[in-house]
Amino acid sequence: MSGSLPLSDDTIAAIATPLGRGATALIRVSGPEVAAIGERVIAHFATLTPRLVSLATVHHPTTGVRIDRALVTLFAGPRSYTGEDVLEISVHGGALVPVLVMEALLAAGARQALPGEFTRRAVANGRMDLLQAEAVGDLVDARTRMAHHVALGQLEGGLSHHTAELRDAIIDLQALIAYDIDFPEEDHGVIDRERVASGVTRTLHALDRLLETRSVGEMLRDGALVVIGGAPNAGKSSLFNTLVGRQRAIVTDIPGTTRDAIESLIEVQGWPVRLVDTAGLRDSSDVVERLGIEVSERYLAESDVVILCAERLDELEILRRRLSALVSAPCIVVQTKADLRGPSGDAGDDNALSVSTVTGIGLDDLIGQLVKLVSRKFSVVDTEAPLLTRERHRQAVEAARTELLAFRDAWLRGDPPSSVAAIHLQEAAQHLGELTGTIDVEDVLGRVFSTFCVGK
């Protein structure tokens, strides 16, 4: 593991659970002075057995005032989350007790931890790599089962292992070329250029397959963009609230109430969906409403699926024509307020779903169509497979791919010399190393000596 993330000698502390009314709260401490600080704030600290939960009194180090009876666990480094000595103190919840314990720890010599500093220390101490650290954040932020499953797979090293395999393949090529440059007459002589080129091609195909996962990875993190658009006062906000399951958008009988886009991430039959309610589409001289309509049009243009709403069939036809040049995503056409039309009302369009948020008519059909279109766009999601879930991932893999292409072209041309062309391999391996934070210039040398008998 590279030491690119600098370590501080400070011992840090933080409240790891949200403040507020609750049964318990957790305070974490990590660093070289955990034992000394623990002695000052926890009664009989020296008798604690590592990794065994103990009941102990927490007190202020200078006043001696008792703060709480807490469950205390000591994790001796390096077998801890951060790789350092870690102390976890579970106290009674609420707004005051955790704060008083933190005050005691700071008075005893700890420093308030910076955001993400515990996980950063875990990376710096080799307890996890950067991809796994990002997965920790994704796991905390996950709001759908699919996102949770993918984050858990990343935390367990799925993408890390795949990236390491690709990087190893590149380093193997570097080692092969380095051996050929230094010992051209050894063993079987000059290396077959096609053998190297085919190895590069295999790695390029693997990188291409990995890049193909980026849209799915982004969708799992952010949700498929499903935009509710349509005529003013068509019941878009009521439909939005119904699908979300709570009152998020203001609903009135006044056309043009929605002036801006309102978003909510929901789960629809396992799929993460970023549902957006937008301003009604119409010609308007109102400056503020016009701005809202422009925002709506931008969302519609970027959408994965559109739910197009209107109360009357003639409005739906106008909207279809208006959006034909703007929207490339598939549309679910919805004729709203079915409860107001009655059995003999105007519902004569076979391409439009008749929906009521009051009675629930058509909602199951709407959800069924939505799931069908989302699954069609993103295909079958293999949550067990490595996925690129962040822009940083995409950039690193694309940069590695660019360097590999440059090397292959130079290698097949035989110009520049192998020693110069191999720089592209070094850069490709470094870009993949940036994904995990593992960048070690000794890797190539180690591979040369372990794979080839250089000393013979």
Question: Would you give an account of this structure?
Answer:
The protein starts with 11 loop residues before the first strand and ends in a 5-residue tail after the last helix. The chain has 3 domains: 12-125, Probable tRNA modification gtpase trme, domain 1 (Gyrase A, domain 2, 2-Layer Sandwich), CATH 3.30.1360; 158-213 and 388-451, tRNA modification GTPase MnmE domain 2 (Four Helix Bundle (Hemerythrin (Met), subunit A), Up-down Bundle), CATH 1.20.120.430; 225-378, 3-Layer(aba) Sandwich (Rossmann fold). Strands 3-4-5-2-1-6 form a 6-stranded mixed β-sheet. Strands 8-9-7-10-11-12 form a 6-stranded mixed β-sheet, with helices on both faces. It has helices at 34-41, 97-107, 117-124, 130-141, 145-155, 158-182, 193-211, 214-222, 236-244, 287-302, 313-323, 338-341, 363-378, 391-413, 418-436, 442-451, and strands spanning 12-15, 20-30, 54-59, 66-75, 86-94, 111-112, 224-230, 262-268, 271-277, 305-310, 331-335, 353-354. The chain is flat. It is an alpha/beta fold and 456 residues long. 46% of the residues lie in helices and 17% in strands.
Helix content: 40-55%
The SS-based structural class is: alpha/beta
First and last CA, distance: 31 Å
Low-confidence stretches: 1-5, 247-259, 441-456
Rg computed from alpha carbons, rounded to a whole number of angstroms: 30 Å
Q: Which CATH class of the largest domain?
A: Alpha Beta
Which sheet architecture does the biggest sheet show?
Answer: 6 strands, mixed
Number of helices: 16
Strand order of the largest sheet: 3-4-5-2-1-6
| Total count of strands | 12
Q: Predict the CATH topology of the largest domain.
A: Rossmann fold
**CATH-defined architecture of the largest domain:** 3-Layer(aba) Sandwich
Task: Look at the structure and name the CATH superfamily of the largest domain.
Answer: P-loop containing nucleotide triphosphate hydrolases
How many domains, as an integer?
3
Strand content: 15-25%
| Apparent shape | flat
Mean pLDDT: 83
Order of helices and strands: EEHEEEHEHHHHHHEHEEHEHEHEHHHH
